[in-house]
Amino acid sequence: MKSPFLLSCSFLLIVAAPSRAQSPARWKAHDMARPRPPVVAPAKQALPVPAPPDALVLFDGTSLAEWRSADGGPAKWVIKEGAIESVPGSGYLYSARAFGDAQLHVEWAAPVPARGEGQGRGNSGVFLMGLYEVQVLDSYQNDTYPDGQAAAIYGQYPPLVNACRPPGEWQTYDILFRRPRFRPDGSLAQAARVTVLHNGILVQDAVEPWGPTAWLQHLPYTAHADKLPLAFQDHGNPVRYRNIWLRQPLEDSAPGPKPDPRPVVNLPAASLDRYVGKYRVVGEAATTYTVSRHDRQLRCDFQYNPLTLELVPHSEREFSLRWTAGEIEFDLRPDGRVAGLSFKLGGETRTATRVD
User: Are residues 75 and 217 both part of a single domain?
Assistant: First the structure.
């Protein structure tokens, strides 16, 4: 495992110190002295597991329409015999849509014949929100550090048992994920929670990651979007995936505003760059808005305002603000040039023309 490219559609970043990283009580990351989970032989399952009627099917064996490469372009993984197969060197595979709380079903198979050992054998990973990894590894009669074997929350929690099937056989992950909650000032209000069933056996019981999973280290939480793309790791092994579906449970039962029906879209970095620049408000020569790009996120600085507001893309023209009931619509010309923007907030609209 290596840390994935952080694919983040949008979030409000308010400058604040990150939450202090929590650490396990006894073990450093990847300690080979850590006790191995006992081996359990899983019962046979009727596969593939059908998706519930309310599930979003992300891969049905025929199309990669729901998937993208790291740069937002077409997926570089391939379809073979109804399964997605990782292509060495192709990079991570990202969902075109973003998700927060989720019930995720994934079926996967390690390469056969088995090659390599330890972390070099059938290595991949399921990254919830692109940040929190449930490790995929051929852990059938293959020793490695316990927090890096199949169904581990990578670098943090080994599975309760080793329920791995032999290489080549289809295996299931059923993952219940609750995203972390952040306060408006960026501090952590509630850690993420992960429950995993591997081949029908409970291997992670509502554990709370200490932060994003990473190779060699324990990272602290930092504020991020409520929804981010799902990701699958290319680790140089031709691991296969099939029958991927996801349900989105209600995140909050308390009364509140209806969720924004618009999708959060994944715009490639090259497209985001065209919005970058300064915009002068019409009739207010001294007032400018500055749009900048940071990784895969657009931010807007409002003159005399100390906050940097993250823009949430809903289309190539329409963006909303993460924590504020504001909207920005860019004036996108037929040739792709961005000529200006309209900023709507509190029932008022300000128009700004591009000046850089």
Answer: yes
Q: Residue 355: what residue type?
A: V
Q: Per the structure, how many domains does the chain have?
A: 2
User: Is it the case that residue 82 has pLDDT exceeding 70?
Assistant: yes
Provide the pLDDT for residue 14. Answer: 28
User: How far is residue 132's CA from residue 210's CA, in Å, rounded to a whole number?
Assistant: 10
CB 200 within 8 A of CB 64: no
In a domain, 94, yes or no: yes
DSSP string, 19-37: PPPP--SS--TT-TTSPPP
Q: Check whether residue 84 and residue 191 sit in a common domain.
A: yes
Least confident of 75-84, 145-154, 301-310: 301-310
Scanning the chain, the segments in alpha helix (DSSP H) are 269-272
**Domain CATH code at residue 222:** 2.60.120.560
Distance separating alpha carbons of residues 195 and 207, to the nearest angstrom: 7
Of 135, 126, 131, nearest in space to 212 by CA: 131
Helices (H), 92-202: none
Check residue 8 and give its pLDDT.
34
pLDDT at 145: 95
Residue 337: count of CB within 10 angstroms of its CB: 10
Give yes or no for residue 37 having a pLDDT over 50: yes
Question: How many CA atoms lie less than 13 Å away from 136 in the CB half-sphere?
Answer: 32
CA 291 to chain CA centroid, nearest Å: 24
Query: How far is Cα 346 from Cα 325, in angstroms, rounded to an integer?
Result: 8
Contact indicator for 269, 278 with CB cutoff of 8 Å: no
What is the Cα–Cα distance from 179 to 98, expressed in whole angstroms? 12
Q: What is the predicted pLDDT for the residue at 17?
A: 35
In this structure, is residue 310 part of a structural domain? yes
Query: What span, in angstroms and rounded, lies between the C-alpha atoms of 174 and 124?
Result: 16
Looking at the predicted structure, is the pLDDT value of residue 174 above 50? Answer: yes
Domain with 321, as residue range(s), is 269-354
Whether 221 and 110 share a structural domain: yes
Q: Is 238 within a domain?
A: yes
